[in-house]
Amino acid sequence: MNITCDNDRFYMQQAIELAKLGRFTTTPNPNVGCIIVKDNQIIGKGYHKKAGQPHAEVYALQMAGDEAKDSTAYVTLEPCSHFGRTPPCADALIKAQLKRVVIAMQDPNPTVAGNGIKRLSDAGIEVTVGVLTEQAEELNKGFLKRMRTGMPYVQLKLATSLDGKIAMASGESKWITSSVARQDVQKFRAQSCCILSTRATVQSDNASLTVRDAELPDDIKQIYSSEKIRQPVRIIIDSQNKLTGNENIFKQLGETWIVRKQDMPVTKPNTKLIIESSANKNINLTKLFSLLANNNQINSIWVEAGAHLAGALIEQDLVDELIIYYAPKLLGHNAKDMCILPNLQNLSMAPKFRVKSATMVGEDLRVILKK
Amino acid sequence: MNITCDNDRFYMQQAIELAKLGRFTTTPNPNVGCIIVKDNQIIGKGYHKKAGQPHAEVYALQMAGDEAKDSTAYVTLEPCSHFGRTPPCADALIKAQLKRVVIAMQDPNPTVAGNGIKRLSDAGIEVTVGVLTEQAEELNKGFLKRMRTGMPYVQLKLATSLDGKIAMASGESKWITSSVARQDVQKFRAQSCCILSTRATVQSDNASLTVRDAELPDDIKQIYSSEKIRQPVRIIIDSQNKLTGNENIFKQLGETWIVRKQDMPVTKPNTKLIIESSANKNINLTKLFSLLANNNQINSIWVEAGAHLAGALIEQDLVDELIIYYAPKLLGHNAKDMCILPNLQNLSMAPKFRVKSATMVGEDLRVILKK
Q1: Which terminus of chain A faces fewer neighbouring Cβ atoms within 10 Å, N or C?
Q2: Where does Zn(2+) bind (chains A, B) (predicted)?
C-alpha cells in the first residue's frame, strides 16, 4: 500500500514538473502535465503548452500509442469532460482503455467539476484523486481562484529598503534593489496574465512593463523561441485620462489596456480601453478585477506600482500574495514609504500575512507572503 | 592528508560546540572549548565557564590525566601564555607532554598574540593553526573586535512591520512582533555584555531590560541555575538627566549604568554613573563605546532603543550587526519609522549591509545582517 502511494507521488511529481513548462504560455488555461506509466516504465508524457493547442493527456496518449491499454495515467488536474476547442480528454483516456487514472485535484471549472472523474469511473477505470494536491494548487493558483470565486489571483510586488522605503524624498529610486532582483521580477511578470500599474508609474518611471525573454530560464528558452514568448497584457489605471499615447509603454510588443472612468480612447495600435464607470471618482478596484476575470479571463494580476495603489489594494483586501524584495540598505525616515494606508487606526487592524518563503536573490532578500 | 584534515575539523567542531556552552557567562573573557584525542578516542574535554574560573584546556587535561601524553588537543582559541587569574595553558599542555595541538585561530589579545603558539612550538609540540577559523571568529566576535580595535561589537535589534514601522502614529507598539520573537531576543540579550538603551525607552515602555532565565535554552539551564545566570549590564543614555531612579529598570537584578554629560548621580543600589563630557550636547557615542571597551571590558553591546538612537548609530557607522524581526503585517505611512537618518541625501550614500541569515521565528522573520 505504501509502495503504491510512493509510486503515485513519484510519477505525479514528474507530471507537475512537466506542467510547469507551460507556465509562461497557457493562460487563460491552466497548466497541466500528464505521465502514462505501464510496468513501472514511463510510456507517455505531455503537457499543455498553449490555449487552443492539445491538452496534456493528448500528447501523452499519442506518445504511448497502443501501449496505453491497461496503463496508469498521472494527471495534475482532472481531465476535461467537455468539448471546448479540443475534444474531452476523459473520453480519450477511456478510448485508450487505461486501467487507472491518478489525478492531483478536481477541476473547479464548472464545465468539469467532477464530471471528468465521473466519466472515467463510469467507464470502469480506477480513479484516485488527491495526490500532491498542494503542489497542483500552487501550479494554477490564478486559474483556480478565478474558477472558484470569479476574481483573479493578485500578486503585489514591492522593492524596498530594509526600512520599507521605495524612493528617496527627492524621488530618486534607481535602483534600490540589485539587477539580479530585477531579473527575478521578469520571471514573475512572464507567468502572470497581466501586469497592473498606474498612469503615475508609467509616466514618472517611463516603464515599459514587458517581459525580456533573455531573462527567462534556459529550459523555457529551449521550448519557446523569443517570438513565441507571451507578453502579459499591461493594464494601466488612468482615472484622470492623463495618458497621451506617447509614453514608452505604447511602443512595446503586446497589448496595453487603459482603465478610465469614461470613454476617452487613446488611439494607439494594440491598445484597448476599459471603462469602470462606478459613481466613485477613483477606479473601483474590486469591480475592475471582477470584470477582468469574468470578461477577459484574467486569472492572475501582477502589480507593479507605487505606494498608493499598493495601499488601496491592501486596504480593500484584494492582495493574495505579497512579493517583497528587500535591498540590504537603510534609507531613513525622510524617504518614501512603500504602502499608503490612510484608514489604519490601530495595531489590531493591521493587515496580516503569512511568510511562505525568504530567499536570497543576489544580494537582496525576497520574501513571499500570503493572505 | 585529507583524512587528517577531516578528523581535525570533526574534533574542532566538537570543541566549538563545547565553547558555546559558556556563551552566556564568560564575559569579558572569550568562549573557549577544548577536546583531547588519543587513538581517535576523546579522552578529555572542557570549556571556559566564567571569568576567574579555569580555562577550557585545564578541564580537558584534568579529565585526560596521564593519558594526555602523546595526545592531540583541539582548542578553539590559541592557548594563553601569560599568568592571569590562572597560570598559562600553553605551559600546562607542554607539561602534559602532548604530541600535537590544533588551534582554530590565534588570540589577538596582545598578552597572547602568537606567544602561546610559539611556546608550544618551542617545546617541540606540533602545532596546526586555522581549523574552522570562521566559526571560531563568530564565537567570540565581541572579544575579538575589542582586542583588535579597542571598540565593542555592536548589535542593533529592531522589531518592525514589513514596511519598517515600529509603532502606530499614536505610539501604540505592543506588540508588533510575536511572543516567540520576543523570547528569541532574550537569548541575544543573555549573550551580550550589556544592553544599551535610552532614557526615553526606559520611561515610555517602562522596560526592565533583563534576562528572564526561563526563556534560555534547556542545555544552558541544566548547567547554570537561575541564580547563576548573568544579567547583562543595562546602560542607559540620559543626556538630559531625566531619570529619577524610580523607573522599573532600577528595581531589577543586575547593574544599571547611567550615561550623562555631567555628574548628577542617581542614588540607587547597583547603579553607576558614566560621564561622557565631550563638548557636544549629545552623548558622543564613539567616545562612549571606546570608554566601555577600554575601561569596562565591554566586548559587545546589544542595542534596544528607538529610531533616533538606531539612526545615530547607523549614521556614525557604529553598528556591526543588524538583527531585524519582521512581523508579517503592514502598518502604513502614518506609523513611526524604524530609523531616523537626518543626514542621508541620496541613494548612493545609503548605509549598506550583507544579509547573513533569514530565519522564521514563530510567525515572524528574523533577518541578520552584517556591515
Answers
A1: N
A2: 55, 80, 89
